[in-house]
């Protein structure tokens, strides 16, 4: 990796200087320009053709969301959003991740974050990861001129046809599947929208999701997923009963596991184990699903960096559950699906727009 060309965009001159300095401490990174508003960012992206753009969410003249849409549609630049931890900042960041941004870094003390150096290592790491990733356009007006809601409508109709035709997948056992567990990381917020938008509101199973995300952003993600899905989506509370048609999203900073109590099954939160790389952890969730549901489960791994979920998914497959992974061409980062595939944990590999139909088939 050498000479990653970066455009830094922020309306604060202090932030532009500080972020540029942080990035250029990495020998592989070269800041080729800075911009102070969204319109300038779009113009400079077209002119300079950077590999990566760090883009402030809230800016004058043209806001970060409008600038993001223009940049990803007109250039090959990958975008890392820089966001505050405010409610509005988290909502806009989730929107940006739905519109083609690869990842985000949080300003820990507001729009002008004097302690931005605290996230220096994270910023450099995410710029490097973005450079190696793909920008998958889901929400913006695409080349055919259709908007996101039309796209998900098409996907939903296609997936319902699969359900109606009862094209059951025969790779698992004959046991009826009662729980769908999904894990994702980088690129996940957008991928999850495609999957959930394609599922019917009367899905005959409960669902639990682990998405690697920073604290303060989980609620905004749950609200976004609920908005695009016919299913009911909400953050998992301390102890939630698994119900058909209900999607529980693990909050950042806590693991979620499933546990049988008498005739009922619950999703439960805990900060233990504390020695995992991620919290929530896909492996922790999947391992509990394997123990509690076994062959009555369907597990899905979507786009993400690293190998979280591979071992837990292998446990589910070994106990007779159905296992599905997103394919490489539609993954922003193919790390998590690839690790699961290489471990022999995956039965079905499919593009993101077919994952929902595969889930439906597994429940037939």
Proportion in β-strands: 15-25%
Please give the order of strands in the largest beta sheet. Answer: 8-10-7-6-13-14-15
Please provide the count of β strands: 15
Largest sheet: 7 strands, parallel
Our measurement of the CA-to-CA distance between the termini, rounded to an integer number of angstroms, reads 46 Å
Q: Please report the first level of CATH classification, the CATH class of the largest domain.
A: Alpha Beta
* CATH-assigned homologous superfamily of the largest domain: Methylesterase CheB, C-terminal domain
Secondary-structure element pattern, one letter each:
EHEHEHEHEHHEHEHEEEEEHEHEHEH
Question: Count of helices?
Answer: 12
Overall mean pLDDT = 88
Q: Which value, in Å, is the CA radius of gyration?
A: 20 Å
Characterize the structure shown.
The protein folds into two domains: 4-132, Response regulator (Rossmann fold), CATH 3.40.50.2300; 148-362, 3-Layer(aba) Sandwich (Rossmann fold). The strands form three sheets. It has a seven-stranded parallel beta sheet, sandwiched between helices. It has a five-stranded parallel beta sheet with strand order 2-1-3-4-5, with helices on both faces. A three-stranded antiparallel beta sheet has the order 9-12-11. The protein is elongated, with a radius of gyration of 20 Å. The protein is an alpha/beta fold and 364 residues long. The protein has helices at 13-24, 38-48, 64-74, 87-98, 120-132, 148-165, 188-197, 218-228, 282-292, 310-318, 335-342, 352-362, and strands at residues 4-9, 29-35, 52-56, 78-84, 103-107, 179-184, 206-211, 232-235, 239-241, 246-249, 255-261, 264-270, 297-301, 322-326, 348-350. α7 (188-197) runs parallel beside α8. The chain has twelve helices and 15 strands.
